[in-house]
UniProtKB/TrEMBL annotation:
SMART domains: PP2C_SIG. It holds the Pfam family HATPase_c_2. CDD domains: HATPase_RsbT-like (cd16934). Residues 143-336 form the PPM-type phosphatase domain. It comes from the Bacteria. InterPro entries: HATPase_C_sf (IPR036890), HATPase_dom (IPR003594), PPM-type-like_dom_sf (IPR036457), PPM-type_phosphatase-like_dom (IPR001932), Ptase_RsbX (IPR039248). Transmembrane segments: none annotated. It comes from Skermanella aerolata. This is TorS-related protein. Gene3D superfamilies: Histidine kinase-like ATPase, C-terminal domain, PPM-type phosphatase domain.
């Protein structure tokens, strides 16, 4: 059975570095870490949090633990809005520092991590996406022709998020994606989002319109949710979308871009006839879907080279800079390429 836990830790003062390390070690048990794996994780989180405070002037660590029958992993987002780095490769070398330090932090994070990625530009802060895995960990089979990354966190002060997402693959190789936001916050919103996830994963429907109609029936008796259902067909270079409420979607390809269209209403309460929209694309695809916990004012072209990075990095940077702190936050990024 899968297990998952996501914990954000603000890094504003020295004591929060130790707090991030303690939280990481707690999550190591969920991921079935050995003592050696736990030790590597502690080094990564300590060095990342120290860098955030020392070089970025403060920021946030997000810890995401996952486990299944083939092992476990803890993924780490280390985010700051500090001065950034002009030359990342130089800063990865031990002994190179932009502050009065030994300059071993980034190198240690990279060495102790099983995967590591960094995005940093002058005046645009720094984002690190990395993770530690058990020795026998096997990644889940990928979505055909796609890479997917997501950030989903509760509003500050809430134990659970009212936002949620899920994905599954059809027998024809298309990927179906659910993005939902339960009304309000807290447990009631989380129950609505979980009801949507459960129905989406259980349903035999393969197209957004009938899937959304089924979700409308399944969410009766909950407080309701706003929902977007997406079908991505890499072989046919086509995206289908049906949405109700303020779930935002941005689709970009080689020669153009567009935003998805949603209907007014609340799934589980009041929905008019569901309408499905189809978007054809050519070449590489970048698609971003998010709840209203993320401002719509973002422009990926303001971040040089970010659109070429892994979806997890894109999601992390947009979350850092455009999250609404008084709301649950959900952003899902999908990329595909001609190859």
């Amino acid at each position: 059975m899968d297990g998952t836990a996501v914990i954000p830790v603000p890094i504003r003062e020295q004591s929060q570095i130790a707090e991030a390390r303690r939280k990481a070690i707690q999550l190591a048990s969920i991921a079935s870490f050995s003592e050696q794996d736990s030790g590597r994780l502690a080094i990564v989180v300590t060095e990342a949090a120290t860098n955030i405070l020392r070089h970025g002037g403060g920021g946030e660590i997000v810890l995401d633990a996952r486990s299944h029958d083939h092992g476990g992993e803890v993924n780490i987002l280390a985010l700051d809005s500090g001065p950034g780095m002009a030359n990342v490769q130089d800063c990865l070398r031990d002994g190179v520092s932009t502050a009065d330090s030994t300059g071993t932090g980034l190198g240690a994070i990279q060495r102790q991590s099983d995967h590591f990625d960094i995005y940093s530009k002058p005046n645009l802060g720094t984002a690190i996406v990395c993770g530690v895995r058990t020795a026998g960990y096997q990644q889940r089979p990928p979505f055909p022709g796609l890479e997917v990354g997501a950030v989903c966190l509760p509003r500050i002060g809430e134990a659970v998020s009212g936002d949620g997402w899920a994905a599954r693959v059809t027998e024809r190789g298309a990927t179906l994606l659910l993005v939902c936001d339960g009304l309000g916050h807290g447990l009631g919103a989380a129950e609505a989002a979980e009801a949507a996830r459960s129905e989406f994963l259980r349903s035999k429907e393969r197209l957004p319109e009938p899937l959304l109609e089924g979700l409308h029936k399944a969410l009766r008796g909950t407080r309701g949710a706003v929902v977007g259902v997406v079908r991505i067909e890499p072989n046919d270079r086509r995206v289908r979308f049906a949405g109700v409420g303020n779930i935002s979607g941005f689709i970009r390809w080689r020669d153009g871009q567009t935003r998805t269209v949603s209907q007014n209403g609340v799934v589980g309460h009041n929905v008019a006839k569901v309408k499905e929209y189809e978007y054809a694309y050519g070449g590489d695809l970048l698609a971003v879907f998010h709840s209203d916990g993320l401002s719509t004012k973002w422009d990926i072209d303001s971040y040089p080279g970010l659109a070429t990075r892994h979806p997890m990095m894109i999601a992390a940077v947009l979350y850092r800079d455009f999250k609404r702190v008084r709301d649950d936050n959900l952003i899902v990024v999908v990329k595909t390429s001609e190859t």
